[in-house]
Write a structure and sequence with these properties.
The protein is α+β, with helices and mostly antiparallel strands. The chain has two domains: about 10-45; about 50-140, His-Me finger endonuclease fold, CATH 3.40.1800. Helix content is about 50%, strand content about 10%. The protein has helices at about 25-40, 40-50, 55-65, 70-75, 110-120, 125-140; strands spanning about 10-15, 20-25, 95-100, 105-110. Strands 1-2 form a two-stranded antiparallel sheet. A hairpin with a 7-residue loop joins strand 1 and strand 2. The longest helix is centred in the last third of the chain and has 15 residues, at about 125-140.
Length: about 140
């Protein structure tokens, strides 16, 4: 589409084409997809609203290496609530996956507030204990 000579690696594979490559280069393909998405925002949102599970599944696999079935199993093991405060997820926001950033190991599912609090405390148990002691002293 751009009229430039490019190498085979500049094209996505496409089994049905005679040479096994897409007729558009990757750059032109991305540009066409961006144009379509901006011209049809309602179609994309409508498709996601009708079935958000594929997008959630892709996100969980990419970020944490688990699929939606693993997430739902963990959620059931936690009785459907935050592992720290016991808050149930809303229809708008599901529980966040809390994981150790050094090892990638998943620790549990948390509400957004608890997940952010852990991050702000730098995942340091001593800092969390110091914060709890401070709150208890201030309340007395």
């Amino acid at each position: 589409m751009c009229g430039q000579h490019k190498t085979r690696s500049d094209f996505h594979r496409q089994r049905r084409s005679p040479d096994g490559l897409n007729y558009k280069c990757k750059a032109c393909n991305y540009a066409a997809a961006r144009r379509w998405k901006s011209a049809h925002p309602e179609r994309r949102a409508e498709r996601h609203r009708a079935n958000p599970r594929p997008a959630i599944n892709r996100s969980l696999r990419r970020l944490y290496g688990i699929d939606l079935a693993d997430y739902e199993q963990r959620l059931a093991m936690q009785r459907g609530i935050c592992a720290i405060c016991g808050t149930a997820p809303t229809t708008i926001r599901r529980l966040d996956v809390d994981h150790d950033h050094a090892t990638g190991r998943i620790r549990g599912l948390l509400c957004t507030h608890c997940n952010l609090a852990l991050g702000h405390m730098r995942h340091d148990p001593e800092r969390a204990r110091a914060m709890a002691n401070y709150l208890e002293r201030a309340a007395a």
